[in-house]
Amino acid sequence: MALNGISAVGVGQYSPPPLPAPSGSNASFSDALAQAGNDLRLSRHAQKRVDARDLNLDQGRMDRLNSAVTQAAAKGSRNSVVMLDNLAVVVDVRQRTVVTAMQQQGGSQRVFTNIDSVVIA
After folding, report:
1. Is residue 75 included in any domain, yes or no?
2. Distance between CA atoms of residues 95 and 26, nearest Å
3. Which entry of 37, 90, 114, 116 is 20 to 30 Å from 18 by CA?
4. Per-residue model confidence as pLDDT tens digits over 88-120
5. What percent of the chain has pLDDT over 70?
6. Could you give the angle at the alpha carbon of 112 between the alpha carbons of 116 and 98, nearest 5°?
7. Confidence class for position 38, pLDDT limits 50, 70, 90
8. How far apart are CA 100 and CA 44, in angstroms?
């Protein structure tokens, strides 16, 4: 029986549409998922602070920061301050997101609350 071009399917006879073909890359889905889960991102607030304070978060520092967050996650941390050279970086470890960043000697407030760990990278 068809209704406006839609054919009726009995109970238990649903067949999902075919999945799209892989895009030609050799990486498996699990590899892509693992890589996506390991990427550290900056919140909008953190990006504004990095730009306004002219903090140098080059690829080398980002790699060290990513490694520090991975270590904190392995220990069960939720929110961490990562001491990275002359920077203090507040990170939501579970979301792998930089919340804010500041130079150690700069800023009027140097109190971080709701932090359960500190990593020196």
Report:
1. yes
2. 27
3. 37
4. 999 999 999 999 998 877 656 778 899 999 999
5. 65
6. 75
7. low
8. 9
pTM over 0.70: no
Mean pLDDT of the 65-81 span: 95
**Cα-based distances in Å from 80 to 26, 57, 62:** 35, 18, 15
Helix then strand then coil, % of the chain, to nearest 5: 30, 25, 45
**Domain assignment of residue 112, yes or no:** yes
Instruction: Assign residue 111 the CATH number of its domain.
Output: 3.30.2310
CA dihedral sign of residues 59, 61, 62, 64: positive
Q: Smallest Cα–Cα separation from 54: which of 89, 101, 91, 96?
A: 101
CA 73/CA 96 separation, integer angstroms: 9
Whether 47 is in a domain gets the answer yes
Spatial distance between the Cα atoms of 60 and 121, rounded to a whole number of angstroms: 12
Please, which residues have CB within 8 angstroms of residue 24's CB and are 6 or more apart in sequence? none
Tell me what pLDDT residue 26 has.
57
